Amino acid sequence: MDTVGTLERKLVRAKQHEPEGAKYPTGIIIDTRGPEGNVFFLFGVANKLLKQLALPDAEIAEFKQERDQQISYQGHMDLMRKWFGIVFVGGEE
Predict the structure, then answer these.
(1) Are 30 and 89 in contact (CB under 8 A)?
(2) Phi and psi (nearest 5°) for 53?
(3) How many CA atoms lie within 13 A of 34 on its CB side?
(4) How far apart are CA 26 and CA 20, in angstroms?
(5) Which of 2, 48, 50, 80 is surrounded by the most beta carbons within 10 Å?
């Protein structure tokens, strides 16, 4: 469990690395050290956002095509940054 000070430092770092130019910025921050760092959790977040944002079918198809082309965990994180402006923290200490 993180202390308040640790969480505050992570939030400052996250804001410094917040992606610019995301298609649909959400302000979501995901700590990759715990269960939220699992790639299947990321898929769930993406699917939930696609529904919540009520994106057109063409946009959803484009996202899914890009998602299916990713071959690494880093690629999936980059895709989430590009589309939803998600900031990933954890593991940098």
Answers:
(1) yes
(2) -80, -10
(3) 7
(4) 12
(5) 80
